[in-house]
Design a protein that fits this description.
The complex is a heterodimer of chains A (about 350) and B (about 625). With about 350 residues, chain A is α/β, with parallel strands linked by helices. Chain A has one domain: Thiamin diphosphate (ThDP)-binding fold, Pyr/PP domains (Rossmann fold). Helix content of chain A is about 30%, strand content about 20%. In chain A, the strands form three sheets. In chain A, strands 2-1-3-4-8-7-13-9 form an eight-stranded mixed beta sheet, sandwiched between helices. In chain A, strand 5 and strand 6 form a beta hairpin. In chain A, helix 3 runs parallel beside helix 5. The longest helix of chain A is centred in the first third of the chain and has 15 residues. The model of chain A has no long low-confidence stretch (mean pLDDT about 90). Chain B has about 625 residues and is of the alpha/beta class. Chain B folds into three domains: about 170 residues, no CATH class; about 170 residues, FAD/NAD(P)-binding domain, CATH 3.50.50; about 140 residues, FAD/NAD(P)-binding domain (3-Layer(bba) Sandwich). In chain B, the strands form seven sheets. A five-stranded parallel beta sheet of chain B has the order 3-2-1-4-16, with helices on one face. In chain B, helix 4 packs across helix 20. Chain B starts with a helix and ends in a 13-residue tail after the last strand. Classes of the chains: A alpha/beta (about 350), B alpha/beta (about 625). The interface between A and B is large, with 44 and 42 residues.
Chain lengths: ~350, ~625
């Protein structure tokens, strides 16, 4: 952390996006997390992604629960809407907000404690309902705010900073998300923005429940040699299956790269994702293949990263519920109170 | 351990150069590397440690700030009013915000607010070293040589044709820019060292004769004393009212001239022209105009001097070439000008071409010609071993200031033509080193290295021993005296200088560029915290590459080629840390956010080594 606020002065050649904003305009207050925290890099990646997509900051709502990770929305998108909810209850608040106003971009920011322990049930139902959102878990395997106890995502056999081994099975958030019906599932690493930024951009563009498990080393309590969530361990065991480019615009695209290494994935809405494939034969559009691959590599002690699963025919909660396209706060009295004749008609249909 | 990593990079490497073909790690032990980062100090000919004294001013330690200056540039009070400030265009603040720090005027704050410095000034030793050195001319170059050599036991004799010391500082700079007391004070500090004999009023007419007096070394600091004349029709006939700028300024300075005609034309666009027009304005010139051949932008005068002149109601007319002086009743009545325009010729050179419009005649009572200065050495015989080039300038070694007669050294304007005071001081320091070495029989071409220190500024977790907060204030203006007073009195100083409050506010604009970002490769865990926090996108972790290619793919492209890249050795992932020094705010946030202390803020202090009187191996 630092006592200085980040100086307003910026690079004279700082690029502007379509809205005339620089990346600095998407920043928030200066972080109070520990120096070197992976979460700050994720905040940086979110800032970069929103800048590159030219999102109007006031069209974004960021929601979080409790924990180090849930503090981070203060440190990015300072001009966006924010809601810091009760521990583990962010998914419910997000679902409700999305029901009321489907036009905002929802970004749920949570941690391994907030989502895999106290909020596990909330996480599961929010995903299976297909809420249109980006759900990011900043996963460091420990409870940082209470001085480094194991969280539910800590690997069995990994050791705490004091040398105590973890006996319990870990919860694999990615496998759960695939199983629960998330339509966009990715894993990444806070130390690899080249991979993370395009994933966040694609997740924002994706219409449906997009889940990103982002491993984010805790420098204070979980960055030692016996940790499986340290910078060194994740770098050494990171098996990236693909790198992603988001192609904005809906035009037909031709590829000039060698076939086999690059794949274009057309999504339901007509947009494209360009995948630079690193693991030959990995097909992110097959749920069964994805689940097999995840289990297999996990057994081998590797951390699979990249875009792991994408349902090209994704739909969201509103499609299923058949809600009105207009946000509720924009409906007028005429729509909300259709009158006694309409009520009589409804009642008659129920008799 | 990085099998997966390299497999991944394998794809990316198709578009990138192979690892190892890149830049070598930066050698920060080379004093030039961090010196260049301190742009102001690097640009200063005397290499004054600018941020160091600015911090002292901020701390209210004016005397210390003055002495830091005095050691480097000898004339802080004088330079704080008159310096050509090569430091300011170089100032990093000018690249991240609108204007540079007012370095020059802060120097004056130190001079104005200091206490008695007598106790800090060197004294000549009682036991002399038996060597005698003659200095010709009592200007800034000679006085610097005297200051450096007298404390070492040299016996110094200064000759000057004027009655008082200071040279062009006294004769050419008007009193409303530089009060006489300031000159007397700072010239006095030097002469007061002792062992310095001033033979004022004694012009040297023959170097041969001076050489015969058996001095151990002779330093020539006679400036560029001849103003260029304008030979056009009417020059001779109107001569009574046509004056050479620097001679006229000198006559005003010494009280020989006290008034001028009501309508005055100043020809020329340099700083001397600016001094001439403003002086004329105070001696009865109600309608003073500056007329320049070329465009306003191309004028040699410093922008602030042009501003000062215009502020006093003096118009600057450009693209007018003087063709003739007109006379009426046997007296100067005006100047005829041809209108020209700047055009590029077929070789791309800029040329002034007549526009064909009718000539313009501007009426006037007096003309001041300030179109350049020349060196003149009629007093140096050509058979005493001093070679001259085809422009009549002595052949002088640019590093040692030694002429082809090993006993004779040059400095200031007399060495390489008209420059400014701070260059004269720099020449003086170098010449003093050479004279000292020469007198001790050492090789003058081996130069002493500068003294450098690099010390961590870390005091605690969020505490640095420098103020790393960045002020967003814009450059403060120096308060001016009311024109009703200043235009009536030649001696009333126009600039009042920053008071302590304004001076403090201005010091806060300094970015402390001497507090360096020092990177220790072995401590870095590549967490990106520094990259994320850096307000000016200076830091990148990437695959190494050749410099021109590497510059294009940093966090922000490094397009300012005058600014270095700081490159680390390869890190664990095989990447390197690259920092573009160009717009670093030296705010220390990278070091505050670094969990392992791989970044540290360390103060780099470089002091130029001056003449020491000792062999290189004995120097402390």
């Amino acid at each position: 952390m630092t006592y200085l606020t980040k100086p307003k002065l910026h690079h004279p050649k700082l690029p502007q996006n379509e809205l005339g904003f620089t990346r600095r305009d998407y920043e928030g207050a200066v972080s109070t997390l520990c120096a070197g925290c992976g979460h700050d890099s994720i905040s940086g990646a979110i800032i970069q992604a929103c800048f590159e997509l030219s999102l109007p900051p006031h069209r974004v709502a960021k929601l979080s629960g409790i924990g180090c990770s849930s503090k981070t929305p203060t440190y990015f998108l300072g001009a966006s809407h924010g809601f810091n909810s009760v521990h583990g209850r962010m998914p419910s608040v997000l679902t409700g907000a999305n029901l009321a106003n489907r036009e905002l971009i929802y970004m749920g920011v949570s941690g391994d404690g907030d989502s895999a322990s106290i909020g596990l049930g909330q996480f599961a139902h929010c995903i299976r309902r297909g809420v249109n959102m980006v759900y990011i878990v900043e996963n460091n395997g420990v409870y940082g705010l209470t001085k480094g106890q194991f969280s539910a995502t800590a690997d069995k056999g990994s050791k705490s900073k004091k040398g105590v081994g973890n006996q319990d099975s870990p919860i694999d958030m990615v496998s759960m998300a695939v199983l629960l019906g998330a339509t966009f599932v990715a894993r990444s690493f806070s130390g690899d923005k080249e991979q993370l930024v395009p994933l966040i951009k694609a997740a924002i563009e994706h219409r449906g429940a997009a889940f990103i498990d982002c491993i984010s080393p805790c420098v204070a309590f979980n960055n030692h040699p016996d940790s499986t969530k340290s910078y060194d361990y994740v770098r050494a065991h990171n098996e990236a299956v693909n790198y992603l480019d988001v192609i904005e615009g809906r035009d037909e695209i031709t590829l000039d790269q060698a076939p086999g290494t690059v794949e274009l994935v057309r999504q339901h809405d007509g947009s494209y994702l360009k995948l630079r494939k690193l693991a030959a034969g990995y097909d992110p559009t097959s749920k069964i293949a994805a689940m097999n691959y995840l289990q297999e590599r996990h057994e081998a002690g590797e951390i699979v990263t990249g875009l792991l699963y994408l349902d090209r025919e994704a739909e969201d909660m509103h499609d299923r519920l058949g809600t009105v396209p207009t946000p509720l706060n924009a409906l007028g009295e005429a729509e909300l109170c259709p009158g006694s004749a309409a009520l009589a008609k409804v009642n008659a249909s129920l008799r | 351990m990085l099998g997966e990593q390299s497999a991944r990079e394998g794809v990316d490497l198709a578009e990138r150069p192979p690892v190892g073909a890149g830049m070598p790690p930066t050698d920060i032990r080379n004093p030039d590397y961090f010196h260049k980062v301190v742009d102001c100090q690097w640009a200063c000919p005397a290499h004054t440690p600018v941020p160091e004294y600015i911090r002292l001013i901020a701390a209210g330690r004016y005397t210390d700030a003055y002495m830091v200056n005095w050691r480097s540039n000898v004339f802080p009070g004088i330079l704080g009013r008159t310096c050509d400030r090569p430091c300011e265009p170089a100032c990093r603040r000018g690249r991240v915000e609108a204007e540079p720090v007012a370095i020059c005027r802060l120097k004056r704050v130190a001079a104005d607010n200091k206490n008695d410095v007598a106790a800090f000034l060197p004294k000549a030793p009682v036991v002399k070293n038996g060597k005698r050195v003659a200095l010709v001319g009592a200007g800034p170059a000679s006085l610097t040589v005297a200051r450096d050599l007298a404390p070492l036991g040299y016996e110094i004799v200064i000759f000057d044709s004027e009655r008082r010391g200071g040279g062009m500082i006294r004769s050419q700079i008007p009193r409303f820019r530089l009060p006489e007391e300031v000159i007397d004070e700072e010239v006095g500090y030097i002469v007061g060292i002792g062992n310095i004999e001033t033979r004022y009023g004694q012009r040297i007419d023959s170097l041969k004769a001076l050489l015969a007096e058996n001095f151990d070394a002779i330093f020539v600091g006679t400036g560029a004393p001849r103003g260029r004349d304008l030979e056009v029709p009417g020059r001779k006939e109107g001569g009574a009212n046509i004056h050479i700028g620097i001679d006229w300024l000198s006559s005003v300075s010494f009280g020989h001239i006290e008034k001028i005609g009501r309508r005055v034309i100043v020809l020329g666009g340099g700083n001397t022209a600016m001094d001439c027009c403003r002086t004329a304005r105070r001696l009865g010139g109600d309608e003073v105009k500056v007329v320049v051949r070329s465009g306003f932008e191309e004028m040699k005068a410093s922008p602030w001097e042009k501003e000062d002149a215009m502020h006093e109601g003096i118009p600057i007319l450009n693209y007018l070439v003087p063709m003739a002086f007109t006379l009426a009743h046997g007296r100067l009545s005006g100047v005829v000008f041809e209108k020209v325009a700047a055009k590029l010729d077929d070789k791309g050179r800029r040329q002034l071409v007549p526009t064909g419009e009718p000539d313009v005649t501007i009426e006037c009572d007096d003309v001041l010609v300030a179109i350049g200065q020349e060196n003149a050495f009629p007093w140096i015989e050509r058979d005493i071993g001093i070679e001259f080039d085809r422009w009549g300038m002595p052949k002088v070694d640019a590093n040692t200031m030694q002429s082809t007669n090993s006993k004779v050294f040059f400095g200031g304007d007399s060495a390489f033509g008209p420059k400014n005071i701070i260059w004269a001081v720099a020449h003086g320091h170098e010449a003093a080193i050479s004279i000292d070495k020469f007198c001790r029989g050492e090789n003058v071409s081996t130069r002493p290295p500068p003294m450098t220190t690099l010390i961590s500024q870390k005091m605690g977790i969020h505490e640095w021993s420098y103020d790393n907060a960045i002020s967003l204030d814009h450059r403060y203006r120096v308060p001016l005296r009311d024109q009703a007073v200043s235009l009536k009195n030649l001696k009333a100083e126009v600039e009042l200088g920053f008071d302590r409050q304004l001076g403090y506010a201005e010091t806060q604009r300094c970015l402390n560029c001497d507090v360096q970002t020092v990177f220790t490769r072995d401590l870095c865990i590549e967490c990106d915290a520094c990259v994320d926090i850096c307000p000016t996108d200076c830091i990148t972790f990437t695959v190494n590459g050749p410099e021109d290619e590497l510059r294009t793919r940093l966090q922000a492209p490094a397009l300012n080629l005058t600014q270095d890249l700081y490159v680390s050795d390869a890190l664990k992932t095989g990447r390197v840390m690259v920092k573009d020094e160009d717009v670093c705010l030296h705010c220390g946030l990278c070091a505050e956010r670094c969990p392992t202390g791989a970044w540290d803020m360390q103060k780099f202090l470089l002091d130029m080594t001056h003449a020491s009187g000792k062999p290189a191996c004995q120097r402390a």
